[in-house]
Amino acid sequence: MFEDECMIRAYQSLQYNWFPIGHQRKIPTFGRHEGAKLFGVLNYETGEVLYRDGERYDTTAFIQFLEVILDAYPKGNIVMILDNGRIHHAAQVEQFLRNHRRLTFVFLPKYSPELNLTEGLWKWLKSDVVHNVFYKKFYHIRINVAAFMRRVNANPMEVIDRLCVRM
Q1: What is the DSSP string of 118-141?
Q2: Mean pLDDT of 110-120
Q3: Which of helix, strand or coil describes residue 112?
Q4: Distance in angstroms (rounded) separating the CA atoms of residues 37 and 85
Q5: pTM to 2 decimal places
Q6: Where are the beta strands (DSSP E) in the chain?
Q7: How many CB atoms are located within 10 Å of the residue 145 CB?
Q8: Strand order in the sheet with 2-9
Q9: Distance CA 29, CA 13 (A)
Q10: What is the pLDDT at residue 167?
Q11: Is pLDDT of 25 > 80?
Q12: Smallest Cα–Cα separation from 60: which of 40, 87, 41, 37?
């Protein structure tokens, strides 16, 4: 499994798009700095995506997400590939791993996000949900993130084809 975190901000962004010459597309914004912090894990074998939407990135939130993963996969060993984020190395997380021996972390080399397949999921999510769109209320972003996750989980072969490297 590949794990990563992502921030979805309330202010939208313009990305590459077509518009008539001389008429640049404008997306309104409230300029607030609200944001949803997402934890996500991609099952490389099945194409299943688990995610958790929260208000913060901290050790407690990360451990709660690990518990969600352990509940979703109640049997067998789990190898999780992740970056070297500070919360991934926290003392409480190391203690959690000692108490849950079937969960093993494999850390990617530093500064190598291209090796984490979940980064591609975040790019896909932002492209489909956030870029070039204005949401009047922040909770509409959360609703659309949840809809995106339901859609990708309904089509695991699309996830595998789009994100997973074939050997």
Answers
A1: HHHHHHHHIIIIITT---SSHHHH
A2: 90
A3: coil
A4: 14
A5: 0.84
A6: 2-9, 35-42, 49-54, 78-82, 103-107
A7: 21
A8: 49-54, 35-42, 2-9, 78-82, 103-107
A9: 9
A10: 44
A11: no
A12: 87
Q: Which amino acid is at 21?
A: I
DSSP annotation of 83 reads -
Burial 39-65 (b: 16+ CB within 10 A, else e): bbbbbbeebbbbbbebeebebebbbeb
Terminal C-alpha separation, the chain = 16
Q: Cα angle at 9 between 5 and 13, to 5 degrees?
A: 115
Question: Cβ distance 118 to 39 under 8 Å?
Answer: no
**Amino acid present at 133:** V
Token duo for residue 92 = 């409480």
* Tokens 């919360």 sit on residue: 87
Strand, helix or coil for residue 60: helix
